[in-house]
Design brief:
With 180 residues, this protein is mostly helical. It is built from four helices and four strands, in the order βααβαββα. A hairpin with a 3-residue loop joins strand 3 and strand 4. The structure holds protoporphyrin IX containing FE (2 copies).
């Protein structure tokens, strides 16, 4: 059962840790994806792509653990906004979760469609080899979801900064690690 804690002034430690770990991973994944093609063809590029795939899998595990924690012992605080803003904030949070899960699912399918090698240790047998259109479409989809996540997370971060610097409330602080 979720534990609603109106009196608590901040999220619990694991929730805060999950939030910032996921946010950093998304950023690292996006940056890494931009430079994979800078690596020479062959093992260097396979290794760079394999790091992206490994961190992507780790992101999937983190999301799962975050979901279990939130549904069981994680602290759920009262909404930071009221009315339409509250609905908007909730919609953005849930959309981010859905897009992150989609990102991992499409990423896994992309590995399968491309028939990628994993650090040269083994190669995933390609789904429908030679189907260039499918490969192109899945790559586009993966890239598009990444762009939408970045835009939405950027707006979400901006909203939390507005809370902090313009409205001077506790919303950002309750998601920051405690200094004591
Ligand atoms: C939030 C997490 C992720 C972000 C932000 C991200 C971002 C990206 C971006 C922007 C690209 C370039 C797409 C394009 O060329 O249009 C890419 C490529 C790719 N991604 Fe991800 N990705 C994530 C997670 C994953 C996961 C979970 C997997 C698989 C388990 C994965 C596997 C791949 C592969 C195989 C490529 C192709 C790399 C290449 O072109 O050599 N990604 N990713
Ligand atoms: C890719 C980056 C990010 C993602 C995917 C993300 C995702 C989320 C999600 C899903 C929640 C809802 C938590 C829950 O109730 O389960 C949340 C809450 C929050 N996020 Fe982020 N976030 C990101 C980056 C940021 C950044 C950069 C900031 C600040 C500058 C930030 C500040 C906050 C705050 C303050 C909350 C708590 C809001 C409240 O209590 O209502 N987030 N984030």
């Amino acid at each position: 059962m979720q534990q609603v804690s109106p009196m608590a002034t901040r999220y619990d430690g694991p929730t805060i840790w999950f939030h910032w770990a996921v946010a950093c991973l998304v950023l690292v994944q996006w940056l890494l994806a931009q430079v994979i093609d800078w690596f020479p063809l062959g093992m260097p590029r396979i290794e760079a792509r394999s790091v992206h795939i490994s961190l992507g899998l780790f992101l999937g595990v983190l999301l799962l653990a975050r979901g279990v924690w939130r549904a069981t012992r994680g602290r759920v605080l009262l909404p930071a906004d009221r009315g339409a803003l509250q609905i908007l904030a909730k919609a953005v949070h849930y959309t981010l979760y859905v897009l992150l899960i989609a990102m991992v699912a499409v990423g896994l399918f992309l590995v399968w469609v491309r028939g990628d090698s994993f650090f040269g240790l083994f190669t995933v047998p390609a789904f429908d080899p030679g189907n260039k259109a499918l490969r192109h479409n899945i790559e586009e989809l993966h890239g598009t979801i990444a762009t939408i996540i970045l835009i939405l997370a950027g707006l979400h971060a901006a909203a939390s900064l507005i809370h902090h610097y313009l409205w001077h409330d506790n919303v950002l602080r309750r998601m920051l690690p405690s200094s004591n």
